[in-house]
Amino acid sequence: MRIIKTNTYEEMSVLAANMIGGQVLLKPNCVLGLATGSSPIGTYKTLVENYEKGILDFSRVQTVNLDEYCGLSGDNPNSYRYFMNHHLFDHINIDKANTHVPNGNAVDLEAEAIRYEKFIESIGGVDLQLLGIGHNGHIGFNEPTTYFPKDVHTVNLTESTINANSRLFERREDVPTQAITMGIGTIMKANKILLIAGEDKTDIIEKSLYGKVTPEVPASVLQLHKDVTVIICKKK
Ligand SMILES: N[C@@H]1[C@@H](O)[C@H](O)[C@@H](COP(=O)(O)O)O[C@@H]1O
């Protein structure tokens, strides 16, 4: 495990974008696992800049996102599909058909979870998975619980996650109470993992990286992964 501390959010974003860019240069048809939240916005901005400079070509890249809220369609500004289009996909030469986000609006969410898990497998799995982390240690939307959920599944969000994420919604009541997310097993199958977070997450990161490996702190499972880089920035 590599742990890098940067002085600024911009520095963290450049480092993270360089790692992702390096993956794209090494393997132009790679599969990138992507995340949402405020932490990766700067990373995506830097990737767009590097694309505009002609350094990166996304024409053969495929992406799979970690999670999506249930009940929001892709054109809802609070959906993760919208977030990804807005911050990254609309600004690079990726084929939109190669960008994948679980369908939180599916009538049969259980079937959608099985489909998404199988789909990731069918394209050869994730080469590099970008992650953020919740204050309670959640990764994707794997909330603290008594076991590590293996595959893509639907979850009930905890009050603390709903509260934290409500800052992005007009009203707290608008925050969906459920989400569909890659499981811990899905995430752990990625070849490489890159976790980025601001200073406000220092305590939960320490607990995750140096504490007991337990599903009560979902990110603690990363201690068992062979190739994890964590970048923490001082200011956001
Ligand atoms: N589902 C996402 C997570 O994948 C993300 O890691 C977390 C932290 O977000 P932020 O980076 O805004 O702190 O937010 C949401 O809950």
Can you walk through the features of this model?
It is a single chain. This protein is of the alpha/beta class. Helices cover 31% and strands 18% of the residues. It has one domain (2-233): Rossmann fold, CATH 3.40.50. The chain has helices at residues 9-26, 41-52, 80-87, 109-122, 159-165, 184-188, 202-210; strands at residues 2-6, 31-34, 62-65, 67-69, 99-100, 128-131, 153-156, 178-181, 192-198, 228-233. The strands form 2 sheets. Strands 1-10-9-6-2-3-5 form a 7-stranded parallel sheet, covered by helices on one side. The chain has a 3-stranded antiparallel sheet with strand order 4-8-7, covered by helices on one side. The longest helix is centred in the N-terminal third of the chain and has 18 residues, at 9-26. It is globular. It starts with a strand and ends with a strand. Bound molecules: 2-amino-2-deoxy-6-O-phosphono-alpha-D-glucopyranose. 2-amino-2-deoxy-6-O-phosphono-alpha-D-glucopyranose binds at residues 35-39, 66-67, 132-134, 140-141, 161, 165.
- Global structural class: alpha/beta
The major sheet is characterized as: 7 strands, parallel
What small-molecule ligands were found?
A: 2-amino-2-deoxy-6-O-phosphono-alpha-D-glucopyranose
How far is it from the N-terminal to the C-terminal residue, by CA? 23 Å
- What's the CATH architecture name? 3-Layer(aba) Sandwich
Assembly classification: single chain
* Coarse shape: globular
Portion of residues in beta strands equals 15-25%
Mean pLDDT: 96
Radius of gyration: 16 Å
Helix content: 25-40%
Count up the helices.
7
CATH class: Alpha Beta
H/E series: EHEHEEHEHEEHEHEHE
Give the spatial strand order of the biggest sheet. Answer: 1-10-9-6-2-3-5
Number of domains: 1
Protein name: Glucosamine-6-phosphate deaminase
GO molecular function, one term: glucosamine-6-phosphate deaminase activity
EC number: 3.5.99.6
Pfam family, one: Glucosamine_iso
